[in-house]
Each structure stands twice: as structure tokens, then as C-alpha cells.
Amino acid sequence: MLSAAVLLASSSSYAQELNGPQKNAARSAKLYLSISGFSRDGLIEQLSSLYGDGYDYVDAAAAVDSLAVDWNFQAKRSAEQYLSMMGFSCNSLIEQLSSAAGDKYTNAQATYGAQQVGAC
């Protein structure tokens, strides 16, 4: 079951406008969000990657954008997951969370996440 903090809600009027692949991608996105923290760009990449779900990028982006997600909360979840594995300085955790090679959060989201878990 998804908590309200993880996934706020789906916009029912927008969700009805999704085509079949987009609806399926939205279902996959909800599942990913129930398991782990994801940034918007990281979730789209997971859904559209040939090594992930293989959805068309446009369908993946539409699916993710149809969901009302608290990306700051997701950044905090990701920060908690990193700190459960190893120690990070404030700057290194922000870099990991915001890096294009990392989680792809915005710098503001990454900073929020790092601050919320006490790394800064």
C-alpha cells in the first residue's frame, strides 16, 4: 500500500487521458515508488531504459507526470537509503543525489533530502 507521503494521488482527469502504454507505465512507476526513492528523471529513466522497463520515453514521462509525487520526500527516502549503507558528508550526499550519474534529483531536492536526514 502506498502512503500518502510517497505518492500523493493521481490526477484522475489527467490519468484518463493516458493511452494504454502510459497507463501501464504509471502502474509500474507506482510500484517503483512503493519500493524505493526515485527522482522524476530517475524514474523516467528506469521506465524508459532498455535495461529497465523499455517504455517509450514520451510514454514514461507522461506516466510519471500524471502522478502527484512529493519529490522532496523521495529525495529524503533516497538519502536515508544511502546512509543506511555507508556514511556520506553533506556535500557528497547532495552530489550523489543530484548527479546525472546518480539519482538525478534537482540540487534543491538533493539538499533537502540531505538536510532532512541530518547529513548537513
Low-confidence stretches: 1-15
* Element string (H = helix, E = strand): EHHHHEHHH
Count of structural domains = 2
- Mean pLDDT level: 90
Helix percent band: 55-70%
- Total helical elements: 7
Separation of the first and last Cα atoms: 31 Å
Structural class: mainly alpha
Largest sheet: 2 strands, antiparallel
Shape: elongated
- As a whole number of angstroms, the C-alpha radius of gyration is 14 Å
Number of strands: 2
Our estimate of the beta-strand percent is 5-15%
Keywords summarizing the entry:
single chain; 120 residues; mainly alpha; Arc Repressor Mutant, subunit A; 2 domains; two-stranded antiparallel sheet; elongated; disordered N terminus
What do these coordinates show?
This protein is mainly alpha-helical and 120 residues long. The chain has two domains: 7-69, no CATH class; 72-116, Arc Repressor Mutant, subunit A (Orthogonal Bundle), CATH 1.10.10. The chain is built from seven helices and two strands, in the order E-H-H-H-H-E-H-H-H. It has helices at residues 12-15, 20-35, 40-48, 57-65, 71-85, 90-98, 107-116; strands at 7-10, 67-69. A two-stranded antiparallel sheet has the order 1-2. Helix 6 (90-98) crosses helix 7 (107-116). The longest helix is centred in the first third of the chain and has 16 residues, at 20-35. The radius of gyration is 14 Å and the shape is elongated. The termini are far apart.
